[in-house]
TrEMBL record:
<keyword id="KW-0132">Cell division</keyword>
<feature type="domain" description="EngB-type G">
    <location>
        <begin position="40"/>
        <end position="213"/>
    </location>
</feature>
<dbReference type="InterPro" id="IPR019987">
    <property type="entry name" value="GTP-bd_ribosome_bio_YsxC"/>
</dbReference>
<dbReference type="InterPro" id="IPR006073">
    <property type="entry name" value="GTP-bd"/>
</dbReference>
<keyword id="KW-0717">Septation</keyword>
<comment type="similarity">
    <text>Belongs to the TRAFAC class TrmE-Era-EngA-EngB-Septin-like GTPase superfamily. EngB GTPase family.</text>
</comment>
<keyword id="KW-0131">Cell cycle</keyword>
<dbReference type="InterPro" id="IPR030393">
    <property type="entry name" value="G_ENGB_dom"/>
</dbReference>
<comment type="function">
    <text>Necessary for normal cell division and for the maintenance of normal septation.</text>
</comment>
<dbReference type="Pfam" id="PF01926">
    <property type="entry name" value="MMR_HSR1"/>
</dbReference>
<keyword id="KW-0342">GTP-binding</keyword>
<keyword id="KW-0479">Metal-binding</keyword>
<keyword id="KW-0547">Nucleotide-binding</keyword>
<dbReference type="InterPro" id="IPR027417">
    <property type="entry name" value="P-loop_NTPase"/>
</dbReference>
<protein>
    <recommendedName>
        <fullName>Probable GTP-binding protein EngB</fullName>
    </recommendedName>
</protein>
<keyword id="KW-0460">Magnesium</keyword>
Length: 213
């Protein structure tokens, strides 16, 4: 069940390319529900454990180096960061979950805020749940999947850093992800495989996103 088993129409691939080639702007970093921008357009969010490569993937999608702040230091993103493509779409970078170099009280606060956002954001179309292909679906990831299930929030697994593994290893990781989502009713059946560094899977991911709006 890889992205290769799904054919995206050429027009959809092109629409995705055009969307992510459009003007994009950082809107704001938000630390509480009162700070959220108006829910006046479709919205997608990227979630994943700390250091999974969320910021790198967002930068690669937009072909920008510094749009989202990437860091080798886990837990640096402590806000919900909003980006806007024209007036068409909000792209949201969620704080990483799991290990973080921050006091426990701080981690607990932004974790609770993130979960409240996921449950209450009415215009949120889908959460793209990033999984490091070198690790596969971990117990921490499964915990987030359960949270998304309880919120009835549609989410889709995106395997990152796929260029770091051999094909046989990727096949094993993909199969593990396929088995994992069978137990989660809110999970989208299509699993994406990407590499921010090599560009692998990015046209397909853009096509998947443009179909939502």
């Amino acid at each position: 069940m890889t992205s290769d088993e799904y054919d995206y129409p050429a027009a959809q691939i092109e629409d995705g390319r055009k969307l992510f080639a459009s003007e994009v702007n950082f809107v704001k970093g938000v630390v509480n529900m009162k700070g959220l921008p108006p829910a006046d357009r479709p919205e997608i969010a990227f979630a994943g454990r700390s250091n999974v490569g969320k910021s790198s993937l967002i930068n690669a999608l937009f072909n920008r180096k510094q749009l989202a702040r990437a860091s080798g230091q886990p837990g640096r993103t402590q806000e919900i960061n909003f980006f806007s493509i024209l007036e068409d779409l909000f792209v949201v970078d969620l704080p990483g979950y799991g290990y973080a170099v921050a006091p426990k009280a701080v981690v607990d606060k932004w974790t609770a805020f993130t979960q409240t956002y996921l449950r209450g954001r009415t215009n949120l179309q889908r959460v793209f749940l990033l999984i490091d292909s070198r690790r596969g679906v971990t117990d921490v990831d499964k915990g987030i999947m359960k949270t998304l299930d309880r919120a009835a929030m549609n989410y889709q697994i995106v395997l990152t850093k796929a260029d770091k593994l051999k094909k046989s290893e990727l096949d094993d990781v993909m199969e593990g992800a396929v088995q994992a989502i069978k137990k989660h009713p809110a999970a989208h059946p299509r699993i994406m495989m990407t590499s921010s560094e090599k560009g692998m899977g990015l046209p397909e991911l853009k096509a998947e996103i443009v179909a939502l709006i």
